[in-house]
Design goal:
The structure holds 2 protein chains of 2 kinds.
Chain A: H1 7-16, H2 28-51
Chain B: H1 3-16, H2 32-43, H3 47-56, H4 61-82, H5 84-90, H6 99-102, H7 108-139, H8 151-167, H9 171-181, H10 183-205, H11 215-231, H12 234-241, H13 247-259, H14 261-276, H15 281-289, H16 291-320, H17 324-327, H18 331-348, H19 350-355, H20 357-382, H21 389-392, H22 409-425, H23 437-440, H24 443-462
Helix pairs in contact in B: 2-9, 2-12, 2-13, 2-16, 3-14, 4-11, 4-13, 4-14, 4-20, 7-8, 7-16, 7-18, 7-20, 8-16, 8-18, 9-16, 10-14, 10-16, 11-20, 12-16, 15-16, 16-18, 20-22, 20-24, 22-24
Classes of the chains: A mainly alpha, B mainly alpha.
Chain lengths: ~50, ~475
């Protein structure tokens, strides 16, 4: 059974079902930044702060 | 592109950014700077002083900053990994990103959490702004001490009206106001410079008022406050980053624009509470520099809170769009619905709400940590990044995300287990804790336990029963 969606929403879904039309997930460069800023930097801050 | 097709494109975008519909590649035009500025404006508000105040109860200035910085960046990373990928790939908001995990009807659980969180934060910001205004007017002799009873509700109503007017244009309203209000971040750093340069001696000698006998417990609590504060950005994040075309554009703005300003501006609150026993800069700047500094601080508070409230109400309104009853509602009415509860809290229970901020903050950690654990486990480990945008927007039992009656039992069980874990490790009301809280915080284990329970129920129940489109 198919669901009747709003015509504009249906148009958008059809386009976005094509992977080429989707946005991109985090790539290698993004992951590098995420790890630096979200793991390495906090780890350094934790060690530094504890020694103060 | 002809002017007619350009006009149609603009109309589609204006329509889409007031809906929860997915945005197309051509509509997602925000670059790193624009996104970073918008995220910074959303994140940097007077909640930073109150967050800083809570850290200043347990830690001194240096240690407080280190713990808060570490916790904030960890919390931001968790949110970026949880809601980020689906929002960035399909141009959807945070609520839409929960449909593969909570189900075609179960998304109402995170939606309710989103509404409570945003209403809570916005109420806090506007009450803070109204209080600061009253304080300043008393200091300037415009109203008498004990006067201004009508000023608080009037200021809240004025602020809510401004938010409403700005948001009539949808996401472009958020963008425009951010470009102007981002200046407040720099004013915040100036205020920090003032207190550090004039009271450095007092600051280094100050002792935290409620520090426990265990230095480790104090330090961990500083980290925990940082994590839960940034976890509360989950409801805001999707509505903002869906305007960016890809992960590369968004990763650094999320971490630097939304994550880093919070611990930096929290220093104002830590310094204020340690030296002057008050975290509101509108009050302590007046003490240090007289009425002129007080006015500057108040303008800062107004700008900071307005920018954040605009972003919050926008995210809240987009979240409401997922409810069938609000799907076709006019944008104007929807905005009124999103702002209405904030007005009510601000007018009816401002003092009660303001006095229980710590509990509110802990409840956010209790709720959003498991949610993030569930999303990360599902996207990276169980679905291996395979998401159907059609199933996200299909509400019937033919959707792969229908699960059981529209609800995913795995997500519900994982939320219960995650909340239970948090509650065991740290009581959000009394701040009593159980080991190993002092080594692992409460949010991180809550996220991990929720993720494990979610994976177990999915593997042993949903997958064999062919539920969830795995």
């Amino acid at each position: 059974m198919t669901e009747k969606l709003n015509a504009e929403l249906e148009r958008r879904l059809k386009i976005l079902e094509n992977p080429a039309e989707q946005g991109e997930d985090y790539d290698a460069a993004s992951w590098t930044w995420l790890v630096i800023l979200g793991v390495i930097l906090p780890a350094i801050a934790l060690v530094w702060g504890w020694q103060l | 592109m002809s002017s007619t097709s350009q006009h149609h494109h603009l109309e589609d975008l204006l329509e889409a950014d007031k809906n929860a519909w997915p945005l197309l590649k051509s509509e997602r035009t925000w670059g790193s700077w624009k996104l970073g500025i918008t995220l910074a404006t959303a994140a940097a508000a007077t909640w930073c002083y109150i967050i800083g105040e809570y850290v200043g109860y347990y830690l001194n200035f240096d240690k407080g900053f280190a713990a808060l910085f570490a916790g904030s960046m960890i919390g931001m990373l968790i949110v970026a990994l949880a809601a980020g990928p689906i929002c960035l790939r399909f141009g959807v908001d945070s609520i839409a990103s929960t449909k593969p995990t909570f189900g075609s009807r179960g998304w109402v659980i995170p939606a309710a959490m989103q509404q409570i969180s945003i209403i809570g934060w916005n109420s806090l910001l506007l009450i803070f702004f109204a209080k600061s205004t009253t304080q300043l007017l008393i200091a300037l002799g415009i109203i008498a001490e004990g006067g201004g009873k009508l000023l608080l509700p009037a200021t809240i109503l004025l602020a809510c009206s401004l938010v409403f007017i700005i948001l009539l244009r949808g996401s472009s309203g958020v963008d425009r106001i951010s470009k102007i209000l981002v200046a407040h971040v720099f004013v915040g750093f100036w205020m920090l410079y003032i207190i550090i340069s004039q009271r450095w001696g007092d600051l280094t000698a100050a002792t935290p008022a409620y520090a426990s006998a265990s230095p480790l417990w104090n330090y961990t609590t500083g980290v925990e406050i940082g994590i839960v504060s940034l976890l509360s950005w989950w409801p805001y994040l999707g509505a903002m980053i869906r305007m960016a075309p890809n992960g590369r554009t968004a990763a650094v703005p999320i971490m630097v624009g939304m994550g880093a300003p919070v611990p930096l501006l929290c220093l104002i609150g830590i310094a204020g509470i340690l030296v002057l026993q008050v975290s509101d800069p509108a009050e302590w700047l007046r003490t240090i520099g007289g009425p002129t500094y007080g006015i500057i601080a108040l303008l800062f508070v107004a700008a900071a809170n307005l920018g954040t409230a605009v972003a919050g109400v926008y995210a809240s309104a987009i979240g409401l769009r997922h409810f069938p009853a609000f799907e076709r509602m006019s944008w104007t009415t929807l905005l009124m619905l999103a702002i209405g509860p904030v007005v009510l809290v601000g007018l009816v229970i401002p003092e009660l709400f303001f006095a229980n901020f710590g509990t509110f903050l802990a409840f956010i950690g209790l709720a959003f940590a498991p949610l993030c654990g569930i999303q990360i486990t599902d996207y990276y480990f169980l679905r291996k990044r395979n998401i159907s945008i059609r199933w996200i927007f299909s509400n019937g039992d033919h959707s792969g995300y229908w699960f059981t009656g529209g609800f995913n039992i795995a997500a519900v069980a994982a939320m219960v287990a995650g909340c239970g874990t948090y509650r065991y490790l740290l009581n959000p009301v009394t701040y009593e804790s159980h080991s190993p809280y002092e080594y692992v915080t409460a949010s991180l284990p809550a996220a991990v336990v929720a993720g494990i329970i979610y994976a177990l129920v999915t593997v042993f129940f949903n997958k064999p029963a062919k539920k969830g489109g795995y």
